[in-house]
TrEMBL record, chain A:
NCBIfam families: phosphate_pstC. It comes from Marinobacter nauticus. It is found in: Cell inner membrane; Cell membrane. Gene3D superfamilies: MetI-like. This is Phosphate transport system permease protein. InterPro entries: MetI-like, MetI-like_sf, Phosphate_PstC, PstC_N.
Automatic annotation (TrEMBL), chain B:
The lineage of its organism: Bacteria, Pseudomonadati, Pseudomonadota, Gammaproteobacteria, Pseudomonadales. The keyword Cell division does not apply. PROSITE patterns: ABC_TRANSPORTER_1, ABC_TRANSPORTER_2. It comes from Marinobacter nauticus (Marinobacter hydrocarbonoclasticus). The keyword Cell inner membrane does not apply. One of its GO terms (cellular component) is membrane. SMART domains: AAA. This is Phosphate ABC transporter ATP-binding protein (PhoT family). GO terms for biological process: phosphate ion transmembrane transport.
Length: 462, 295, 424
């Protein structure tokens, strides 16, 4: 049975368990003179039976579904004749994809060596077996645990508190998933990054000015493994983010100021949602716009002025990214500006200051820390933005500050290195994870600092 | 949004006050007659000449047909139960109500025989002449010096640094703060005590040499000692400025003002010499208020 | 007094300059809003301008003489013969009949007017109904993409027209006579991806998006709400709770591509889950949207006034009963609104899905959670990278469809908020 269908079956069991538990508590209460002699309402006895039935079964199902793929892969590899056993993880993944292609019928068995065709059959058989075992086991666990839960129902049992405690733990587990996710991120990048630094030196990675992972530049480099100096990626990312900020900060800030200080309620009601629409547009749409409309326009326009501009200029990607970030900056600034107490505004206006003088000399300085925090968050968003740069920035790692040239960014390289077939032990693939680790650390740092500043600022006026 | 919030905080209790029916408290003959003020609301050659003033918040009539003169260099106190419209009325005098979208002012309000609400009237200039001190001390999050220098700077009152230094020193002296802060002019103002902050706000207001200073319950957030200092200051300032003070405390009104105006539910009920108001009020509502029967 | 007079004079002198500054500042604000809005307008205009023509298809309607002899076919029910038969020939002949001026030497040019897959259409028709052999049928085929481009974009300099002079003349004549015609492009909405722009559609991507969203919603909504309930109602004030909160706030700001790395390393490499499937996509997007949902659900719970809780606790309800019977129903509209907005974000997300292999070229419409699939934004990405303008046209159209979905979801969220949210 497919996991999805099995899940429906488990849910059916859960419903039945609830009904049985409910009925049993009632029938136990009957001779005693009604349900008021039960410790809890029949509903809770039913719910308790349902939890007993459902939770273990779902845990078994989840674990099985999570690990069956890996176990089957290992079994298939293990059963290959010795001369075919792959040497490294890279070969293994190639071989496995070949086998699973044969198994799924995408590749006719006649096209591959006999052992591979056999392995494919074995894969099919193992998958069928695994599904069968899983179904039997899950059903058995559901029935057995449900029965145990059901048989132990007695009038003195405090079913309500048990159910509530269980629910509380489930709620806790859901909240703790956030920790698990962070741990998952840290481990998934840390592990591969560690392996990367076993192949490539720290020094080369952080201070090398050549980035060319696909081809070897110097003779002493490992065959077909190129240079891994991240300086040009770093500067490229900074250049594009800086351009984005140059667009987003003034436009976002000034529009927030106008909407919060000058516009009346009606105007604000119209324009604020319109600005926020910019934030709802998917990044792939901005990427499309940058790559196919803005970039050609910039290079044509530059050409008409006699300047040479790349068709994948940093200016196009950065400018469009800036547009994307405008609502981000404006809504954060809006919050911060509105948090400045009205009494300061009144104080300044009562001295005869004009609105702009009040804004520039009193409100803005008072709001500055909060605005800085908001800008840092925006920067973190800009350096982590992927689709716009993947579509509109280039792949060539140029070390330049000229916005009309093409640069590449950390995120572009991660996507480029990881799409398509990967070999999991090549420096190229590992480099993507190392870049991911840098990106994660940088954004984490920016976010932590920014959130701290913003929180401190809020406390000041609370 | 903020502007609206202030309306709510300063005038929120209007409906609540309305809920206390005047008729139940007092016999029928004390029902206020609109536009009729007992006592001496008018003066010769007044600084402010205010006639038939009405203020609306949306549909709500917060000020009902008030006429009053404010004389030159007098200290006049506005008293009354909370929500009676005294702050609203005060804020008309330098058009601080302008920033509230739903607020409309009707009637004739003149400062030195020039209409305050004239469309050609310049608010900035008006406010430079009519300064204001607020209920809660609101120093800017800047240094003490910059707070006082703020007004002169934006209005371009000082050409040289030394002129500005003089203005700051004079204003702080007048506010009785100079000796306390002369050594730490660069310290941030928000670090001062509440009473110092309020006196700083007064110094800030007089640094632009206004002709009138409006004070909206300037001592309500201060302790008794700080209050005493501010009251002393008001007495000194009354020599060169016209001062309009809204206060919750009748004792304060009695101590600092020359004349006292009693507001009730948006009406101006009585205006008289302060002594007279507190010893022999003419109107029954005034009497019940000062004897503490409500408010 | 004189001091005050002269001061007033100084103030008056400064006014002109200051009001000029005031006006300038105000103008900056208006300019900023104008810039942002014009960017929005240009973006929409650009995409609609590029994409609206993708909703039109070009067809060729022919009287096809299904001549068995010319096709080397005498029994259409014989699968072996069907495999060998020539289904192109009858089409060419039918076209030649419509273009009298075309001679034998023009056969190739004539053939290139009709879609290369038209012969498959003819074969499928015969397979379904072998009786059609040796009859004449009126059939409508898709035109060749080059013809489609010529018909729709003849005057547009940005498109390069690949038809030669002779072909253009023919197409003009055929268009005049209604043999070549345009109509609503149903193909675009009923097929998966294709190498041939005329036959490429977004149904596969829409179904892929739908499957992915089902997984995301089914996981992130209950988990997010449960986590929010825990943090707002049950969490003790301790280090662990603080740590959870810090994690949630940071995850909300982690770049989406990092979640892609997580999916690749954990779901695919560690658990051996298949690549390119909606389940893995849904899992990754769940982790990505969870912080948004948790944060908005917490806000919704916070907005339920304590008086409700106190009232329920006052009559002896347990904490859990108070939460499940009273707080949760009252907070539900806010939670739903937040979740819809989270889903809209997930629907538009591309980067993490690239890393878990949802960029494959997939022709078939996926039929399950474990079937290879792509999603709408990735389809846009794939087509946008094509050098053929006909694909760019379709990418724009796919963007229009995607934006329609997103606007619909946001409108639903706004409607829900207006309709269901109480004011306390």
């Amino acid at each position: 049975m497919q996991p999805a269908n099995l899940m429906l079956l488990v849910i059916a069991f859960v419903v039945v368990a609830y009904g049985l538990g409910y009925a049993r508590s009632r029938s136990l209460a009957m001779p005693m003179g009604g349900i008021r002699h039960l410790k809890s309402l029949p509903f809770y006895y039913g719910a308790r039976a349902a939890l007993w039935c459902g939770i273990p079964a779902l845990i078994v199902l989840a674990l099985w579904a999570a690990f069956q793929g890996k176990v089957i892969q290992l079994l298939v590899i293990g059963s290959l004749p010795p001369d075919l056993v792959p040497e490294g993880a890279g070969q293994a993944s190639l071989l496995l994809s070949k086998i699973s292609n044969v198994a799924s019928g995408a590749l006719p068995p006649g096209f591959v060596e006999a052992p591979i065709a056999e392995a494919a059959e074995r894969l099919q058989a193992l998958r069928a077996q695994s599904r069968l075992y899983m179904s039997v086991l899950v059903v058995a666990v559901a029935v057995l645990a449900g029965f145990l839960g059901w048989i132990r129902i007695s009038p003195k049992l405090n079913a309500r508190s048990q159910v509530e405690t269980t629910l509380k733990w489930i709620f806790f587990a859901c909240a703790a998933l956030a920790i698990l996710t962070t741990v998952g991120i840290v481990f998934s990048v840390a592990f591969e990054t560690f392996r990367f630094f076993q192949k490539i030196s720290f020094f080369e990675f952080f201070f090398g000015t050549q980035w060319s992972p696909q081809t070897a530049l110097r003779a002493d480099q490992v065959a077909a493994e190129g240079a891994f100096g991240m300086v040009p990626l770093f500067t490229g990312t900074l250049l594009i983010s800086a351009i984005a900020m140059v667009v987003a900060v003034p436009v976002g800030l000034l529009s927030a100021i106008y909407l919060s200080e000058y516009a009346n309620k009606r105007v604000r009601g119209i324009f604020k949602p319109l600005l926020e629409m910019l934030a709802g547009i998917p990044t792939v749409v901005y990427g499309f716009f940058a790559a196919l409309t803005v970039a050609p326009f910039i290079s044509d326009f530059a050409a008409s002025l006699g300047i040479n501009a790349s068709s994948q200029s940093a200016l196009a990607a950065g400018g469009v990214m800036g547009i994307m970030i405008i609502p981000f900056v404006s809504s954060l600034s809006d919050d911060v500006i509105n948090a400045v107490p009205q009494t300061l505004r009144d104080g300044s206006l009562a001295l005869g200051a004009t609105q702009s003088e009040t804004m520039k000399k009193v409100i803005f300085p008072a709001a500055l820390p909060g605005i800085m925090g908001g800008i840092l968050l925006a920067v973190s968003r800009a350096i982590g933005e992927t689709m716009i740069v993947v579509m509109a920035a280039g792949l060539a790692a140029n070390l330049t500050a000229n916005p009309l040239e093409s640069v590449t960014t950390v995120t572009v390289q991660i996507v480029t290195l990881l799409t398509g077939d990967q070999e999991f032990d090549s420096a190229k693939t590992l480099a993507a994870f190392a870049l991911g680790a840098m990106l994660f650390l940088a954004t984490l740092l920016l976010n932590v600092i920014a959130l701290k500043i913003v929180r401190k600022y809020r406390e000041q006026y609370d | 949004m903020n502007t609206l919030n202030t309306t709510v905080t300063s005038e929120a209790d209007v409906p609540e006050e309305k809920a206390i029916p005047v008729q139940d408290e007092r016999p029928a003959e004390t029902v206020i007659e609109e536009g009729k003020t007992v006592g001496t609301p008018f003066a010769d050659d007044p600084k402010f000449k205010l006639r038939n003033v009405e203020v609306f918040y949306g549909e709500d009539r917060a000020i009902k047909n008030i006429s009053l003169d404010i004389a030159r260099n007098e200290v006049i106190a506005f008293i009354g139960p909370s929500g009676c419209g005294k702050s609203t009325f005060l804020r008309c005098l330098n058009r601080m109500n302008d920033s509230i979208d739903i607020c409309r002012v009707k009637g004739s309000l003149q400062l030195d025989e020039q209409d305050i609400y004239d469309s050609k009237r310049d608010v900035v200039e008006l406010r430079a002449r009519v300064g204001m001190v607020f209920q809660k001390p609101n120093p800017f999050p800047k240094s003490i010096y910059d707070n006082v220098a703020y007004g002169p700077r934006i209005h371009g009152l000082a050409n040289r640094k030394s002129d500005l230094d003089d203005i700051v020193e004079n204003s702080l002296r007048k506010a009785g703060l100079w000796n306390e802060v002369k050594d730490r002019l660069d310290a941030t103002a928000t670090g001062m005590s509440g009473g110092q902050q309020q006196r700083l706000c007064i110094a800030r207001a007089i640094a632009v040499s206004p002709e009138v200073v409006l004070m909206d319950e300037p001592c309500s957030a201060l302790d008794p000692i700080a209050t005493a200092k501010v009251e002393e200051l008001i007495a000194e300032l009354s020599e060169s400025y016209t001062i309009v003070i809204v206060t919750h405390s009748m004792q304060q009104a009695a101590r600092v003002s020359h004349r006292t105006a009693y507001f009730h539910l948006g009406h101006l009920v009585e205006v008289n010499e302060t002594d007279k108001v507190f010893t022999s009020p003419e109107h029954e509502l005034t009497e019940s208020y000062i004897t503490g029967r409500f408010g | 007094m004189t001091d005050q007079r002269s001061q007033a004079e100084l103030v008056r002198q400064s006014l002109k300059r200051r009001y000029r500054k005031e006006r300038r500042f105000r103008a900056y604000g208006i300019a900023a809003i104008a810039i942002a809005l014009s960017a929005l307008v240009i973006l929409f205009a650009d995409i609609i301008g590029k994409g609206h023509t993708a909703f039109i298809k070009t067809t060729v309607t022919l009287e096809v003489d299904i001549d068995g002899e010319a096709m080397y076919l005498d029994d259409a029910s014989d699968e072996r013969q069907m495999k060998m038969a020539d289904f192109v020939e009858p089409l060419i002949r039918a076209l030649m009949k419509e273009i009298p001026e075309a001679g034998e030497s023009d056969r190739d040019d004539v053939r290139d007017l009709i879609n290369p897959y038209a012969s498959n259409q003819l074969r499928d028709a015969l397979r379904e109904n072998p009786e059609l052999l040796n009859t004449t049928q009126t059939m409508t085929f898709l035109s060749h993409t080059d013809v489609d481009v010529y018909v729709k974009h003849a005057g547009d300099a940005s498109y390069s027209i690949k038809l030669n002079e002779k072909q253009r003349g023919w197409v003009d004549a055929l268009y005049e006579r209604g043999v070549v015609d345009t109509g609503f492009n149903d193909v675009f909405f009923s097929r998966g991806d294709s190498r041939d722009p005329s036959r490429a559609g977004i149904l596969g991507a829409i179904v892929g998006s739908l499957l992915t969203m089902v997984v995301t919603l089914a996981l992130s909504f209950p988990i997010g709400v449960a986590a929010a309930i825990y943090l707002e109602e049950f969490a003790p004030q301790n280090k662990l709770t603080d740590f959870i909160e810090v994690n949630i706030n940071n995850l909300a700001a982690v770049p989406s591509i990092i979640f892609g790395l997580l999916g690749l390393a954990v779901f695919i490499n560690l658990f051996g889950m298949p690549r390119s499937v909606p389940v893995v996509g849904g899992l990754v997007l769940t982790l990505m949207t969870l912080p948004t949902i948790i944060i908005s659900s917490r806000a919704a719970i916070k907005s339920v006034p304590p008086s409700i809780r106190e009232a329920a606790e006052g009559i002896g309800a347990s904490k859990m009963q108070v939460v499940l019977h009273h707080v949760l129903p009252l907070a539900m509209p806010g939670m739903l609104t937040g979740s819809i907005i989270g889903m809209a974000q997930a629907l538009g997300e591309t980067a993490p899905l690239l890393l878990i292999g949802m960029v494959a070229f997939i022709v078939d419409v996926p039929d399950g959670f474990f079937d290879s699939a792509t999603v709408l934004p990735v389809q846009v990405f794939l087509w946008a990278g094509s050098p053929e303008l006909a694909f760019i046209e379709r990418a724009s159209a796919a963007i229009m469809v995607l934006l329609t979905f997103l606007i619909g979801m946001n409108a639903l969220a706004i409607w829900l908020r207006k309709r269901l949210e109480r004011r306390w």
